[in-house]
């Protein structure tokens, strides 16, 4: 049990140290902190989802 906790913390720390923060919708990349160097705003996410839905032909009900 202790070993699993240690491994989980190590993996989590390595993921955090990369600075990666990626947002996707239905498998389509919406925002990448690695590409832009900043965290997304709500407007970034809403716009990205809208564009992904339009490109994929998805509709909302």
UniProtKB/TrEMBL annotation:
GO terms for molecular function: thioredoxin-disulfide reductase (NADPH) activity. GO terms for cellular component: endoplasmic reticulum membrane. One of its GO terms (biological process) is cell redox homeostasis. This is Seleno T. Keywords: Redox-active center, Signal.
């Amino acid at each position: 049990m202790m070993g699993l906790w240690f491994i989980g913390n190590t993996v989590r720390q390595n993921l955090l140290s990369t600075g990666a923060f990626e947002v996707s919708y239905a498998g389509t990349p919406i925002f990448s902190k690695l590409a832009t160097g900043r965290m997304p705003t709500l407007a970034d996410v809403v716009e990205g989802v809208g564009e992904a839905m339009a490109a994929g032909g998805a509709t909302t009900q």
